[in-house]
Amino acid sequence: MFGFEEVSEVGGVDLLAQPHPFMAVPLRGSSLVFRDVTKGSQLPTGNHFVEVKDITDLPVARIAMEIAQGDLIGALFALIGILPRENTKRLLMISGKTPGVSTLKAGLDTIDVAVLRPKTVTVSFKFVHFGQGKSETGTIWNPADANGMIAVMNNIYSQQANVTCKLHRAEPLRIDGSFGDVVDDKVYDEHLKDKYDKDADVTVLLVCKWTHTGTRTANATTIPYGKNRVIVINDKPTGEGVEGIDPFQLTLAHELAHSLGADHGGTDGKGHQKRNHILLSDGQQSLKISKDVLLMINPWEGAATGSARH
After folding, report:
1. What percent of the residues of the chain are helix, what percent strand, and what percent coil, each to the nearest 5?
2. How many other CB atoms are found less than 10 A from the CB of residue 11?
3. Across the chain, where does the E strand assignment appear?
4. Rounded Cα–Cα distance for residues 21 and 126 (Å)
5. Does pLDDT of 298 surpass 70?
6. Which residue has the higher pLDDT, 24 or 90?
7. Which one of 10, 149, 215, 240 has the fewest beta carbons within 10 angstroms of its own beta carbon?
8. Domain map of the chain by residue range?
9. What is d(CA 229, CA 221) in angstroms, rounded to the nearest whole number?
């Protein structure tokens, strides 16, 4: 169907973008994309914005290519230098030279490539517990988990959006008094709303269970405080994610997108998208950041940054 194909779901390629397939490339970094040569033998060439290299026949690239296609036997043959079959795909490395967007052409196929400037977001984590002793309630997570959470977010955001999360602080937060298992809006307003880290772009408050009093939603929420954002997140979120994706990681990535600016447009004025299998979908989500969501969280030079498409 497409003359270009993604190597990884979190590799920055959006084949369903309009008006052409799209990929994001970090400034002074690189992204990978497959060129399906059954659609035409031509390969794209670089320009002022990007450099294009065919790295298919490099040994390490060939191994990675076979693994990406789910062919472990092919990867083994590549490892020992014996290629078992003619491959119908070329592995291209697209490197960002100049911020902006351009269109690469290969025969009848095109792909828009945006070169993104780096964006850094500082994140603090507070691990909330209420009460003491037998009446204590609180999150199952602890400060030692913070580095792993940052690593997961960077795996999702760095290649797709050139956004890097940096850990600012991770600490327990103890609140006097017992309020049961569920943290609702009233408990938040009375005991948590002023506990965010003013020196961090985003503060993540990890609670045992969270729910909005009015809507009874029980996953997470993002609350703005001027330039700061607070994410309140349930320990065990539920929802419509693609099978195999950790619900907590998906929910944290979803709320981080809101914190980065995906808080307008879409189907509801809050950045949610009608399209399935992307982050912020109002249907079934995945970890893929679509072009429309990317426009909100790290727009590139020359991009129209109005409300995202429904």
Report:
1. 25, 30, 45
2. 17
3. 4-6, 13-14, 22-26, 30-36, 50-54, 89-96, 100-106, 109-116, 119-130, 137-138, 163-175, 182-183, 202-207, 209-210, 220-225, 228-234
4. 40
5. yes
6. 24
7. 215
8. 4-116, 119-297
9. 10
Is the peptide bond prior to 247 cis by the omega test (within 30 degrees of 0)? no
Is the pTM above the cut of 0.90?
no
* Strand pairing class (30-36; 100-106): unpaired
The model's pLDDT over 171-215, given as tens digits with 9 standing for 90+, comes to: 999 998 777 778 888 899 999 999 999 999 999 999 988 887 766
Residues 115 and 25: beta-carbon distance below 8 Å: yes
Could you tell me the CA-to-CA distances from 267 to 95, 274, 291 in Å, in that order?
Answer: 34, 6, 15
Alpha-carbon distance 175 to 177, whole Å?
6
* C-alpha pair distances (Å), 211 with each of 131, 172, 220: 19, 21, 8
- Percent pLDDT > 70 in the chain is 86
Q: What is the CATH number of domain 119-297?
A: 3.40.390.10
